[in-house]
Write a structure and sequence with these properties.
8 helices, about 30% helix, about 230 residues
Length: about 230
């Protein structure tokens, strides 16, 4: 029997405009192209798992609008379970409006929308869905108390709890201790630990600092330099 994963987190529609340069205040400028893609850190995790052939359940929220209904169809098309995904009235689906320049720079405005409705009570309501999974993936694009509630639930059930601490944000000490694996990138590891992660030695110190805070394992992602793994005893 293959493992089953539960992703608790954000669902955004990414609206990407390609431009020669960033628009200036008060300026109207012709763009190069426009596209809409399903995103959100939670949705991206669920999609990656599904494409790898895993069985996945999603817990989150979408607005009861055209973007939310389209995202729900996309989840269905990938075979991602959405019994834990609600369609919320009177609020928009989460969005990310992204400008990408010809030089590859980007500017992003994120609106949480329905992601803000993923409250601890919703995590509790999804307990039967979560209980059927062996691993849980989390990020920080829903309310922090909900992330903590989900991590507690996963740890209580002996699940593998994997946290991508993005976007970079301060976290309570308890959350570290509930993580089987924490997976920051260099910037996030620097924010969480205060270590200079521009060197391999600094990355190693950051990873050890994450273990000292209670995480059972830490993977610091370092782009083209690869990743650094540290395990607790």
């Amino acid at each position: 029997m293959k493992p089953k994963y539960c992703v608790v987190g954000s669902l955004n529609m990414d609206m990407i405009t390609r431009v020669e340069r960033f628009v200036r205040p008060g300026e109207a400028m012709q763009g190069i192209s426009f596209a809409i893609f399903p995103g959100g850190k939670g949705g991206n995790q669920a999609t990656a798992l599904a494409r790898l052939g895993a069985e996945v359940e999603m817990v989150g929220a979408l607005g009861d609008d055209v973007l939310g209904r389209r995202y729900a169809e996309l989840l269905d098309g990938q075979g991602i379970g959405r019994g834990g995904v609600s369609l919320e009235a009177s609020i928009s689906t989460g969005t990310a409006a992204i400008e990408v320049t010809a030089a590859g720079e980007n500017s992003i405005v994120v609106v949480w929308g329905a992601n803000g409705r993923v409250e601890p009570a919703r995590i509790e309501a999804a307990r039967p869905i979560i209980a059927g999974c062996s691993s849980m993936l989390l990020q920080l694009e829903i309310p922090l108390d909900s992330v903590l509630a989900a991590a507690r639930m996963g740890a209580e059930r002996g699940m593998t709890v994997i946290l991508d601490p993005a976007p970079a944000s301060d976290m309570p000490d308890e959350l570290y201790s509930l993580c089987s694996v924490i997976t920051p990138n260099e910037t996030e590891a620097r924010h969480l630990t205060g270590e200079d992660t521009s060197t391999e030695e600094g990355i190693a110190r950051a990873a050890r600092a994450l273990l000292a805070r209670g995480a059972k394992a830490a993977i610091v992602k370092a782009g083209g330099r690869g990743a650094y793994l540290a395990r607790g005893r």
